[in-house]
Amino acid sequence: MRQCSRRIFLKRGLRACSTSAVIFPLSARPVTPYYTVVFDERFGDVTNLFFSDLDLRWKLWLACLIGFTTSASPFCLHRLARDRIMMRLLSSDSSDLVVWIIGPGARASKKEIAIA
Amino acid sequence: MPSLPPGVNRKDFQDAIAQFQAAVGKEWVFTSDEDVDLYRDSYSPFWNEPEDPVPSAALAPDGVEQVQQIVRIANKYKIPLWTVSTGKNLAYGGSAPRLSGSVVLDLKRMNRILEVNDRNHYALVEPGVSYFDLYRYTQEKGLNVFIDAPDPGWGSPMGNTLDRGGGHTPLRDHFSTLCGMEVVLASGDVVRTGMGALPNSRTWQQYKYGFGPYVDGMFTQSNYGIVTKMGVWLYPMPEMRFTGIVSVPKHDDLIPMVDTLSYLMNSNIVLGTTSIASSLRALARDPELIALRSKAGGAGIPELEEYLRGKNLPYWSIELPFYGPTEVVPAQWAFAKRKFSAIPGVQFRDGASNKLPPGPEDLAKVANPVPLGVPSLAIFAALGTNGVGHIDFSPITPMTGEAVFEMLDVFDKVSNEMGIDNVLSVIAGTYYPRSFFFLFTFPIVHDVERNRKTRAAFQRLVQVGAEHGWGEYRTHLAFMDDVANAYSFNNHALLRLHETLKDALDPNGILAPGKSGIWPKHMRKRRV
Question: Global pTM?
Answer without folding.
Answer: 0.92
